[in-house]
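Hi support team,

I submitted a single chain yesterday and got back a structure, but I'm not sure I'm reading the token output correctly. Could someone confirm the output below corresponds to the sequence I sent? I've pasted both exactly as they appear in my results page.

Thanks,
R.
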Amino acid sequence: MTSTPAPATSAPGRPRFGIFRQVCIATVLGLILGLADPTLAAETRWATDLFLHLIIMAVGPLLFCIIVTGITGAGSLRTVGRLGVRALIWFETMTTLVLLLAVGAALLIRPGAGMTFTATAADSQAVASYAGNAHLLHSQGATGFLLALIPHSPASAFAEGNVLQILFFAILFGCCLNRIGPAGAPVTRLIESLSTLFSQMMNYIIAIAPLGVFGAVATTTARYGLDAIIRLGAFTLLYFAAVAVFIFVILGSCLIACGIRPLKFLRYFREDILIVSATTSSDAVLPAIMTKLETLGVPRDIVGLVVPAGYSFNLDALSIYLGFAVVFLAQVTGTHLTWTQMLTMLATALITSKGAHGVPGIAIVVLAATLAAIPSIPVASLVLLLAVDWFVGIARSVGNLAGNCVAPVVVAAWEGRLDRDRAAEVLGYAPQHKDQTA
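Hi R., thanks for writing in. Yes, this is the structure output for that exact sequence:
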């Protein structure tokens, strides 16, 4: 049996804590510069663009290598299929559940009550580009979505950074490589080496995360000012609270059911959460969280299949946002939604969000596509959410990251392959032995 080498890791002690401290300092400095000299702060946008461009450059090849090695390391295609089906069941169950809960909570709390909105020509112009992209996303329908999974060529998928197409090609490639057996062994070893190489490349890129965080915080503060935090405060705070409930209650309960302590688990990923909250991009920490999950006792083949797939199919916090935002906009525009319209909106949101990873203005574009299913809500009302989209994106990115950290743990427990003693050792608590009699 061929053993698959573990990805390159850095020491979990001082270097990781160093990055955590650097990101904290960069956040404070960016906030100070944005308030003290907005003109100068606006010129630091290049730092964030540099960081994100480097991430985009490396994440496609890394995803491909991770998925292929995950499939070849899983052994038989029967095992791969079982893992894939269980992961998709989990993804769809969780995204549907949180979407329904978000709509229910918004209808109960009524975050848009007391506000009124009348669309103007300027508002329509401000959201025109988002609505145009949403029309393309919405008009494709289910068949268009399936066809869009297939790249014109493998090179085009990597060149465009289309995660869904890379995912499709990697699964097909990995299944074929698994099927040909010993003849594919040299290719398997090459991809394993490339996986280690791109993981190391990501480690180098993450080293400049504080620079990207500094630029993101400085330019956002300069553009909106502190007043932006309290504009639409009820909606923004409600969404943050909803994501917090999702993380601590729903995901926390899932971890407890799997025998993992939620607060210890959360602290284990603290530096990754901080980087994601500042850059609003979870791609930056993909190799880091995968390495940590393997260290925690989740089998590598499960991590290699579930985490990359979750980046496109398990956007829990985006589902919460869509549910809240549609009800909020309906309330501020005085639009009454029937149950038929509500169900149509839910179905549309579940479909359009699947291909949304990596799309610029992801949430606004998907929200506009969702509103297209309910024409009575003016698309121009999206302008209300544009000013706070970056702030909302903080909770959205952290919530999506949390969901994709917990999903492999759940699937591993479902498979009966989660090493709970290893997890207890890594997280620093006494293991439970109540299942040792099995």
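A quick pointer for reading it: The chain is about 75% helix and 0% strand. Let us know if anything else looks off.

Best,
Support desk
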